[in-house]
Amino acid sequence: MNYFKQIMLFAKPYKKYAVLNIVCNILYAIFSTLSFLALIPVIDILFDKAKRVNELPVWDGWSGVKDYLFNSFYYYVSQQVAENELSALVLVCGIVVLLFFLKNIFGYLATFFITFLRNGVMRDVRDAIYDKLLELPVAYFSEKRKGDTISRITADVNEVERSFLSILEMVVREPLTIIFTILMMLVLSPKLTLFVFVFLPISGIIISRIGKSLKKQSNQAQEENGTFLSIVEETLSSLKIIKGFNGENQFRSKFRGSTTRLNSILNSLINRQNLASPTSEFLGIFVIVVILWFGGQMVLVEGSLEASQFIAFLGLSYQILTPAKQISKASYSVKKGNAAAERILSVLNTETTIKNAPDAITAQEFHDAVHIENVSFKYEDENVLTNFSAVVPKGKTVALVGQSGSGKSTIANLVTRFYDVNEGAIKLDGINIKQLTKASLRAQMGLVTQDSILFNDTVRNNILLGKPDASDDEVIAALKVANAWEFVNELPLKLDTNIGDSGNKLSGGQKQRLSIARAVLKNPPIMILDEATSALDTESERLVQKALENMMMNRTSIVIAHRLSTIQNADQIIVMQKGKIVEQGKHQELLALNGTYKKLVEMQSFE
Prior knowledge:
Blueprint: H1 2-8, H2 15-37, H3 39-47, H4 65-83, H5 85-135, H6 138-142, H7 146-153, H8 155-163, H9 173-188, H10 190-210, H11 214-237, H12 239-244, H13 248-274, H14 276-302, H15 307-348, E1 369-378, E2 383-393, E3 397-402, H16 408-415, E4 423-428, E5 431-432, H17 438-443, E6 445-448, H18 459-463, H19 472-481, H20 485-488, H21 508-522, E7 526-530, H22 538-552, E8 556-560, E9 572-577, E10 580-585, H23 587-593, H24 596-605
Helix pairs in contact: 1-15, 2-5, 2-9, 3-5, 3-15, 4-5, 5-8, 7-8, 7-11, 8-15, 9-10, 9-15, 10-14, 11-13, 11-15, 14-15, 19-21, 21-22
Domain ABC transmembrane type-1: 19-336
GO cellular component, one term: plasma membrane
Keywords: ATP-binding, Membrane, Nucleotide-binding, Transmembrane, Transmembrane helix
C-alpha cells in the first residue's frame, strides 16, 4: 500500500473532485438502501389491509424513531389507499422509481467528478516521469532498455489508472453501500444479520487466497512488456542492418519468444484475476440460499419476522453482493497496480547524480578559457581518463585526436557535464563547472555530434531548438553559414518541410549540416565538435568542413577529430592514448616529432 500512498500524492491538486465524489457516493449509498426499504410498504399496505395505519403516529423520542418513521410513511400511504387504491399504487411505485433514479443520478455524478481526478493524476504522473527522464543523467540510460522506459510511461501508467485509480470510484461508494445496507438489515432483523455474518469471513478468506501471487505475476508481465517494446524500438531504428544481414528471422524469433512469454504470464494472471468474480458471486449466492433457509424458518415457523421485511432483507442482502464483488476485484487490481506503481516510482525516486549545487551560480559571459585540471574518470571500473589536463583559451581551437577508446569523446561528455569527473576539476573562467547551474553552463556551449540527432519535425523547428524565438531570417542566416540553405531552399516546403524520423528523408551530409546550423543559430561562445565529419563521404565532408570552418571562425572550439585532415589548422592538437596525453602541439610540430601523431596521419593517408 506504500506505493498506493505515493501515487495518491498526485491527487492533492484535485481534492475538490474527491470531495464532490464522496458527497455523491454518500447520497448514492443512502438512496440505494432506501430503494429496497421502499418495497416494504408496497407489499404491506397494498396487499395486506391489516397493515394499514389510520392514526397519525406521535413522536415518542429518539428511542422510537424507527417506528415513528415507518408508521408516518404507512399512515400517509394508507390515507392515499383509502381515497383511491390505484392512485396509491402509482404513488408508491413512483416513490420507488424516484429513489432508484436518485441513486443512479448520484452514482453517475460520482463517476463524473472522479473522472477529472483520475485523468488529472494520470497526466501529472506522465508529466513527472517525463520531467524525470529529462533530468536524469545520460549514464542512467546507458544501462536501461529504451523499450522498458517507454513501457513505464505508457503501459505501467495505464495499469495504475486501471487498478489504483479505478478503486477511487468504489473506495467510498461500495463500503458506504455495505455499511448502510447492514444498518438497515440490523434494523429489520438483528438475529438474521448476525447469522449472515458468520459466513462472510469464510468468503473473504477464500477470495484472498486466490490473489496472493498476482503482484509477482503482474511485475513479470510489465517487465516482459518492456522487453518486447525494446525489441520493436531496436527493429525500427536498425531496419536497414537487419534487412542487409538477412536477420529478419533472428529478430522475428526474438520477438515471438518475448510475446509467447508475455502470453503465458498474462493467461495465468488474467485467469487468476477472473476467478475472483465468479468465486465471490457463488459464495454470495450461497449466503443468500442460507438466508432463505434460516429466514424462511423465522417467517414460517417462528413468526418473528414479517414476510415483507424478509423480502426486503433478501433484496438488501443481494445488494451487498455487488459492492462486495467490486471490493474483491479491487483487491486484485491493487496487487496488479502495486507492481506497475513500483516500476513507475523506481524512476521517479531515482536520485539524480548530476544536479545543481545548492549554491550554484549562473555562468556569465565567457571571457578567458576552459581549464581541464588533472581529470580522471571511469565509466565502470577501469579509468578512461587519467590525470588529463588541458587549456582551451578563448577564441582558440583545440583538437583531440587518437585511436577509438582513447577517451576523446569522454572529454566532451565531461565539459558539458553529461558526466561528472571522478577526480580533478573542469573550470570555466576559473569557476568549477560543478558550481555553475547546468542550464547556464550548457547555454555557453554548442554541440555537434558524430550522429546527427534530428527530430521528426520541420527543418525550422529542428534549427530553433537552441533559440526558439529566432526569426526566419536568423534561421536562414544560420543555414547559409552551415552550407545548408542551398538544399533546404529546394525542399518542397522549404523551412516547413518535415524531415522524417531522425531526419531520414535527408542524406548524411544534409543532416549534419542541419545539426551545424542548429549550433550556429544558438551562437554559443564555446563549440564542441565530436567527430562531426567521421561518418560522411568525401563530398559531404568537404561541404560540412567548410561549414565548420565558417562556424568556428573567432570562436572557442574543442574538436574531437577522427579525420586528421580536418584539424590541421587547429591552434593546438592533443594526441591521446588510453586516456593520457602522449603528444601535443601544432600540426607541423607534431609531424616533426615523428611519433604517434605522424603514425596516425600516415595510416589515414592510405585510407
